[in-house]
């Protein structure tokens, strides 16, 4: 199996980075689809339009409302078609960025992602997730290549509520451990290739940065004032985490996001918060003796991450039926095979019960 590493063409981060949007967009043409949710459009829409107009780039706004369903994607693609766009500019949270990926894929054009929160590593990846009308996950789709440009304005991200920032921590902290399991057990990464050493080293650096600066970064989240620690952690959560998972691979922590939503009260928890609890379950199943599970549990308390299903939103002790269903769905996920041993439903159910 060939080893494959993938990444965005260019990553730009810092306070005021949004001001460069027009000059980068102009590299690809004069017509762009702006994929953006209604709230962010109200806050940033006129500024983005002005920045692009300064460089003779005209925008066709495509407003994202509701879940990212196949029907919504078809509607957005239909709106984009008459505009003969040269590029897609996707601005907002994960839903808007994923919608932008779907439009860019169908239009065979460049994609610029502009995250307004750091709740996950979607800005750098080629993956996007589709749901049905009942918010059940339908499929994970892929662009042929990663976004061309990722533009991360930390002054904007620092205004987002701390709850989203914590979710980003939870999504990123798992990547070292999942990449290890994938590599050690012959798994494939998101490019259907073998993981490279480079991806593991990046995932290792991601974890080190989160543990060193996570507490200070959380203190800055929501203030609108990015600090050096905040900048480092945003880079870890978006760039290092994204490269680590796509080129390094995933394992149990992310596979659990297929099953955890079936536990009553957990389905509405942000993806990264589910991953955070999923990582503790994975480390439990690894039967580690290096103290990492205890160390991470302590760090979770310091940054405000959930450690149990009840902290994720489960109202009571989940039923045996709910836990079993969650385990069954998790083990059907592709990433669940990237583990030191073959798990059965009973083993995973018991591990979930220990973290209820």
What is this structure, in a nutshell?
Pathway: Polyol metabolism; glycerol fermentation; glycerone phosphate from glycerol (oxidative route): step 1/2. With 356 residues, the chain is α/β, with parallel strands linked by helices. The chain has 2 domains: 1-250, 3-Layer(aba) Sandwich (Rossmann fold); 251-355, Up-down Bundle (Dehydroquinate synthase-like, alpha domain).
Structure description:
It catalyses: glycerol + NAD(+) = dihydroxyacetone + NADH + H(+). Its cofactor is Zn(2+). NAD(+) binds at residues 37, 94-98, 116-119, 125, 131. Its EC number is 1.1.1.6. Glycerol binds at residues 121, 171, 254, 271. There is one protein chain. This protein has two domains: 1-250, Rossmann fold (3-Layer(aba) Sandwich), CATH 3.40.50; 251-355, Dehydroquinate synthase-like - alpha domain (Dehydroquinate synthase-like, alpha domain), CATH 1.20.1090. It is built from 15 helices and eight strands. Helix 6 packs parallel to helix 11 and helix 7 runs parallel beside helix 9 (228-248). It has 356 residues and is an alpha/beta fold. The strands form two sheets. It has a six-stranded parallel sheet with strand order 1-8-5-4-2-3, sandwiched between helices. A two-stranded antiparallel ribbon has the order 6-7. The longest helix is centred in the middle third of the chain and has 24 residues, at 197-220. The chain starts with 9 loop residues before the first strand and ends with a helix. The protein has helices at 21-25, 38-53, 70-80, 94-107, 154-157, 162-173, 175-184, 197-220, 228-248, 252-255, 271-286, 292-303, 309-312, 320-332, 345-354, and strands spanning 10-13, 31-37, 58-64, 87-92, 110-115, 127-131, 137-142, 149-152. Helix content is 49%, strand content 13%. Helix 4 links the parallel strand 4 (87-92) and strand 5.
């Amino acid at each position: 199996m060939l080893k494959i590493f993938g990444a965005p063409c260019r990553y730009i981060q810092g306070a005021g980075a949004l001001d460069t949007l027009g000059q980068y967009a102009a590299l690809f043409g004069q017509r762009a689809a702006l994929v953006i949710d209604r709230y962010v459009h109200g806050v940033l829409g006129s500024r983005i339009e002005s920045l692009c107009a300064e460089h003779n780039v005209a925008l066709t706004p495509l407003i994202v409302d509701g879940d990212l369903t196949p029907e919504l994607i078809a509607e957005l693609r239909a709106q984009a078609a008459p505009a003969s766009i040269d590029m897609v500019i996707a601005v907002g949270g994960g839903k808007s960025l994923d919608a932008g990926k779907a439009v860019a894929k169908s239009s065979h054009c460049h994609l610029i992602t502009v995250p307004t929160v750091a709740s996950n590593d979607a800005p750098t990846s080629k993956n996007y997730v589709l749901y049905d009308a009942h918010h059940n996950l339908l499929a994970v789709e892929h662009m042929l290549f990663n976004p061309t440009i990722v533009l991360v304005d930390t002054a904007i991200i620092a205004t987002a509520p701390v709850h989203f920032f914590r979710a980003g921590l939870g999504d990123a902290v798992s990547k070292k451990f999942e990449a290890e399991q994938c590599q050690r057990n012959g798994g494939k990464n998101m490019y259907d290739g073998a993981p490279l050493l480079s991806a593991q080293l990046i995932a290792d650096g991601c974890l080190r940065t989160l543990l060193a600066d996570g507490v200070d970064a959380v203190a800055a989240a929501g203030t609108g004032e990015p600090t050096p620690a905040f900048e480092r952690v945003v880079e870890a959560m978006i760039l290092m985490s994204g490269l680590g998972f796509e080129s390094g691979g995933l394992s149990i922590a992310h596979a659990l996001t297929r099953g955890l939503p079936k536990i009553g009260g957990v389905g509405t928890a942000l993806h990264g918060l589910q991953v955070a609890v999923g990582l503790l379950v994975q480390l439990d199943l690894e039967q580690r003796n290096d103290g990492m599970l205890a160390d991470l549990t302590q760090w979770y308390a310091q940054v405000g991450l959930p450690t149990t299903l009840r902290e994720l939103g489960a109202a009571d002790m989940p039923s045996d039926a709910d836990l079993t269903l969650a385990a069954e769905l998790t083990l059907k996920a592709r990433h669940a095979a990237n583990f030191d041993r073959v798990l059965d439903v009973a083993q995973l159910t018991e591990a979930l019960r220990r973290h209820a």
